[in-house]
Write a structure and sequence with these properties.
With 274 residues, the protein is α/β, with parallel strands linked by helices. 39% of the residues lie in helices and 13% in strands. It folds into 2 domains: 65 residues, no CATH class; 155 residues, 2-Layer Sandwich (Nucleotidyltransferase, domain 5). It contains 11 helices and 5 strands; from the N terminus they run H-H-H-H-H-E-E-E-H-E-H-H-E-H-H-H. The radius of gyration is 19 Å and the shape is globular.
C-alpha cells in the first residue's frame, strides 16, 4: 500500500485490503539491536519453558554466551508482556485496584461441544527487524477458528477492543476467556464483554497458562510457521503477512485435533448446527 496512490485515499486503500486504518499507521517500538536480540531469544525460550522467571531466563541467556543481568531481563520481560506461569512470592494476592476486576475461571471440567461456547483471547510479542509489535487474537475453542486479530505498538486495551468488535457478528458467544492481564481486567474491556447479552467472562488462574491452552498453542503455531521464518520490515508488512497466514490457518491448514479438517470447515459446520 502506498500513501501517494493518486485518486485513492488511505482510508479507501485500507478498506479495500480489509486493513484497519490504525494498523496502517502502526510503527514498531524501537529498541537497541542488542535488546531486540535478547527479546527474540527470550520469546523463543518462553514458548518452550513458560515457567522460566527472571532468574532462569537470565541463566539461559548466559549459557548462550550473553552477559546479561537480571535487571535487564526483568525489564525486557515486562516490555514483552511475559511472566512465568508459576506464581512467585505474593503474586497470588488479588489486586486492590477498583479499576481492575478479576473473574473466576469457568472452564474447569467444561465439555466444549459447539462453536461460540468458549472464545479465548491473549496477547503475544511479534519481533521486527528494528522493533516489535503486539498481536491479540480471538479463537473459537471448539473449531480452533481465529475469529479476529489485531496489531498494536502498545499494550493498551484499545486494540483488544477493536479485535473484539469483530467477533460478535460471526457466532453467538457464551464465554470469553482471558488471562489476568491489565488489558482484560480493565473496566473498558469488562464492560464491553458484559454489555453483550448472555456473555460471561472467565479468567485464567494466576500463573496458569494451561487454562488458556488453545490460545497458547495458536501462538506456538504462528511463531514457528510464520513469524520466526521472516523478519518484518514494518507494521504494514507484518499485518499483510499475518493476514495471509491467518487465512491459510483457518481455510487451508489441516488440524490434527480436528481429524484433519480445517478450522473453517469445523466452524462452518458448527454454525449450521447451532
Amino acid at each position: 500500500m502506498k500513501s501517494d496512490d493518486s485518486g485513492i485515499s488511505i482510508a479507501r486503500q485500507c478498506e479495500l485490503l480489509g486493513l484497519s486504518r490504525s494498523s496502517y499507521y502502526y510503527e514498531p517500538i524501537g529498541e537497541s539491536a542488542e535488546n531486540l536480540l535478547y527479546m527474540r531469544l527470550i520469546d523463543e525460550q518462553y514458548l518452550e519453558t513458560p515457567y522460566y522467571g527472571v532468574g532462569q531466563m537470565t541463566y539461559h541467556l548466559r549459557l548462550q554466551g550473553y552477559q546479561v543481568n537480571p535487571k535487564r531481563v526483568r525489564r525486557l520481560l515486562r516490555l514483552m508482556g511475559l511472566s512465568a506461569v508459576c506464581p512467585g512470592p505474593h503474586t497470588s494476592k488479588p489486586s486492590k485496584s477498583t479499576e481492575h476486576q478479576v473473574f473466576p475461571y469457568l472452564l474447569r471440567g467444561l465439555d466444549i461441544t459447539k462453536c461460540g461456547q468458549v472464545v479465548g483471547t491473549d496477547i503475544t510479542y511479534i519481533p521486527m527487524q528494528s522493533g516489535f509489535l503486539y498481536l491479540v487474537a480471538y479463537i473459537d475453542w471448539y473449531s480452533r477458528y481465529v475469529l479476529s486479530w489485531e496489531l498494536s505498538n502498545t499494550l493498551e486495551t484499545s486494540f483488544c477492543l477493536t479485535a473484539m468488535e469483530q467477533i460478535w457478528s460471526q457466532v453467538p458467544v457464551q464465554i470469553i476467556n482471558t488471562d489476568q492481564g491489565s488489558q482484560f481486567t480493565s473496566q473498558a474491556f469488562v464492560q464491553a464483554v458484559l454489555a453483550q447479552d448472555g456473555v460471561r467472562l472467565s479468567m485464567d488462574g494466576k500463573g496458569r497458562a494451561i487454562d488458556n491452552v488453545f490460545t497458547e498453542r495458536l501462538w506456538r503455531t504462528v511463531k514457528y510457521e510464520e513469524v520466526y521464518l521472516k523478519a518484518y520490515e514494518d507494521g504494514q508488512q507484518a499485518w499483510q503477512c499475518l493476514d495471509q497466514y491467518f487465512k491459510k490457518y483457518n481455510e487451508r491448514r489441516p488440524h490434527k485435533n480436528l481429524g484433519g479438517r480445517t478450522p473453517q470447515q469445523v466452524f462452518e459446520q458448527g454454525k449450521r448446527e447451532l
